[in-house]
Design brief:
Layout: H1 13-28, H2 33-40, H3 44-56, H4 72-82, E1 86-90, H5 98-116, E2 122-125, H6 130-138, E3 148-151, H7 160-174, E4 179-180, H8 191-198, H9 201-207, E5 215-219, E6 221-222, H10 227-232, H11 238-246, E7 251-253, E8 256-258, H12 278-283, E9 287-290, H13 297-305, E10 311-315, H14 316-322
Parallel strand pairs: 1-10, 2-3, 2-5, 3-4, 5-9, 9-10
Antiparallel strand pairs: 6-7, 7-8
Helix pairs in contact: 1-3, 2-3, 5-6, 13-14
Length: 323
């Protein structure tokens, strides 16, 4: 039996001529679709269809030239592997320079916030992250009024109050909104005192607003506290840190520790950190994590495995370790 040939999808020479002409005007001459429509006396919808057809038939081939310090393929690989919305990978000259890594991640995070923040967003920040501090340093006042900026981790302590307050207030000023401070230490040394502090009106009012946060900007800490956190006096003692290590802790978010699979280390009866809980992090609509440096790679992977992160901003060395 003779095979029938379907001519419907085949381009005639006249169709090819029109498509090539439209493509030339659009890509080489820089004309808008409406201008091409007027010049060729055809409908704008026809112009749009012809451009789509040109791509489908291989007449138009689009090549994206990726600069050496942009890592789109690696970003997509991590996004697909850990099922998260977006990964932003920064390049640093000295991969062992932690300060350079923090500043570069901070600059990328500032750009991300400036381009994604929406009117009436309610931001939460983990105020004991040097990466977040670098982000705020790179920001400038925006022409937008957010709903508020709330402190997600207690900061009262030897040096804590000033740093946490300034960071939260500065970001709130840039976003033309109110700041909500969490008037407590990061960690209470006993469950009894933790319950007492959580029961005070001042703390209860702030913690009750965690469920309103539309975007949480968090750091991911390793088991050993950062110098910023250690100097604040808001961290567990050596005995507790060894206990956490023995239970398999690899990192923390808001001082709530998790293992390499992202599972919480401490039960609710043991955890005395005053800040946004891990289950609240998961429930938050949009969580942006800022973390880099090879020492944090295992903690970052644990956070991704736990499903705590929607957007990760990190450096290339860590990104390669994640895949």
């Amino acid at each position: 039996m003779r095979k029938q040939v379907n001519f419907i999808n085949m381009l005639t020479q006249n169709e090819q001529r029109l498509i090539v002409k439209i493509a030339h005007l659009y890509y080489y001459e820089g004309l808008k679709q409406s201008e091409i429509s007027a010049a060729l006396h055809i409908s704008q919808s026809c112009v749009s269809r012809m451009l789509s057809r040109a791509t489908k038939e291989g007449i138009i081939k689009i090549n994206i030239i990726q600069p050496a310090n942009i890592f789109i393929d690696l970003e997509l690989e991590i996004q697909n592997k850990y099922k998260i919305d977006q990964v932003i990978i920064v390049d640093v000259v000295d991969e062992n320079n932690e300060e350079q890594i923090k500043q570069t991640i901070g600059a990328a995070a500032a750009h991300y916030l400036q381009t994604t923040i929406r009117e009436d967003d309610f931001l939460g920040i983990s105020s004991w992250s040097s990466h977040i501090r670098a982000m705020v340093d790179k920001l400038h006042p925006l022409n937008i009024k957010a709903k508020g900026v709330i402190q997600l981790l207690g900061g009262v302590g030897t040096n804590g109050n000033v740093n946490a307050t300034i960071l939260t207030h500065t970001l709130a000023n840039y976003l033309n909104c109110d700041a909500f401070l969490l008037p407590s230490q990061s960690i209470e040394m006993s469950k009894e005192y933790f319950d007492h502090v959580m029961g005070t009106d001042e703390v209860k009012q702030v913690v009750s607003k965690f469920k309103e946060v539309s975007m949480a900007i968090i750091g991911i800490g390793e088991l050993t506290p950062s110098s910023l956190l250690k100097n604040s006096g808001n961290y567990y003692n050596e005995s507790m840190l060894k206990n956490l290590e023995s239970k398999g802790a690899v990192g923390d978010i808001c001082l709530h520790y998790f293992d390499k699979k992202g599972k919480p280390i401490l039960s609710p009866d043991e955890d005395t950190a005053i800040g946004m809980q891990l289950n609240e992090i998961i429930a938050c609509p949009h969580v942006v994590a800022l973390a880099g440096g090879r020492r944090r790679a295992q903690a970052i992977k644990g956070a991704l495995m736990g499903g705590y992160v929607d957007v990760l901003i990190t450096d290339k060395v860590v990104a390669e370790m994640l895949v």
